[in-house]
Design goal:
By secondary structure, the protein is mostly beta strands. It is built from seven helices and 31 strands. Strand 8 and strand 9 form a beta hairpin. The two termini are 49 Å apart.
Length: 497
Amino acid sequence: MSAILHAALLAGTLLTPAAPSPASDGTTAALEVALLGTVSDPVRDSADDAAAGAPADTGYDGANTQAVAPAPLPAARQAPGIATRTPVVVTRADAANRLDVAQAAVDLKVSASIEPWRPQNLALAWQEQESTMLRERVAQWLEDPEQLLNQPEPLRWQHDGRQYQAAVRHLPAGSATAMERAVVEISTEYDGRQVHSSIQLQRLPFSHYAQFIDSWDPDVTLSEDIVTGRFHSNTAINISTERGAAPQFRGPVSIATSLTWAGAYLAAGMFADGLELQAGRIDLPTMTMPLFAAEVNPNDSGGQRSEPHYFDRASWITFHATGEYSWKHSPDGPVQGHRTTSAGTVYLIANDGVNLSVQGQLSGQVVVYSPYRISITGHLRYADNPQDSADSPDLLSLISDHTIQIETPSVTGPGDLHIQAAIYAGRRFSVRQFRARNNGMLYIYGSVVAGSMSATEPRYATRIEFDHRLDSIRAPGFPMTDRYALESQDPHWRVAR
């Protein structure tokens, strides 16, 4: 019995034609064949068939076939990666298109790979003048996001006779620490085909700043302060250089107005990473509670979320490195209970007029919110210190519509005070009894955002250092600014096929 081509295919055999075969019957085609076994011998098969009483099949089929002698395959037609010991020649057989192997048994080796065809995205780089125009457009949008992001219709314009259109798709924050984003799809036409490119913008949270002050207190001066990270003030700041003291800004500084003696301060190296004046106001939200409530109510796609813990009376809260917090209703009163801080983002929420006092060592992610006041009564540290461990999961946000204050020396104790947290005080961040001769240091690692800020000296000289984890995530529950930053852009036009 002869070896049939389609039987070989059903057995998983791979045939690769070396060249197209003519359509007429009886024409031969040289094939590179990769088989996983041995090609049968038609003469031996015919003898076996005759012994079994079946008609012999010798590879000839009357006028429709002809005997073909094996011919060597030209070297130029050897397929790379396919090793053959001897070329195989087959003949076109009867009307059923059976192919009989006219050759003795041959062992062939297989070494081949087949990659499926995939549709490609056609890409065309932005032209030089076009690229300049589009980058200028993006800079304008970042300067004034309203002209693009809050328009009911796509923005349209013309450049060098070509029409352009920009449509915005908003991506809301998916969790308490996620960023809001906006994807800008820019489209135009080339050679009658619609092409598009995309730009992704990231909305900046207030925790983007090491220190942010809305209205600088005219009675407050900066003298021995050190701020490491971004600094912004919506009003002029007061700087004192008396007795050889001077503040240091180790990060970009932006001020919405002017600054007296700015040139002298720059020359003195006070602004190591530059100073931007007339930078424009960044308004604080009128209320943080609606923004905060929006974080609590939806299902948090960022992971687990515990139920908020509401406080209807003044409470003193202590965080424990074991992943719990406890609370009392008076400084010296009994502990009222313990709860975990390890179940996703934990929310501690005070009712109107309720003061929450906090201290301790935090393990987990916690938001403390009071519309009235939050008091810091002692050190606030992370169990896993992010200054030593960049992937620390611990995060604390202190958010108040009104005041966040550092308690008196009789409460906090003498000496230095360490705070690791992101602080948002809508009205004021203050140090009580700042005139006390404590001569300590106030270390804040994270972010300080406030409507205004009291003096801290002589009780404390201040060191504020930005928590660089907040470059890529938002402090839990923190409100957003109206500013955007360019996160990514694709400088190509693309046509999807």
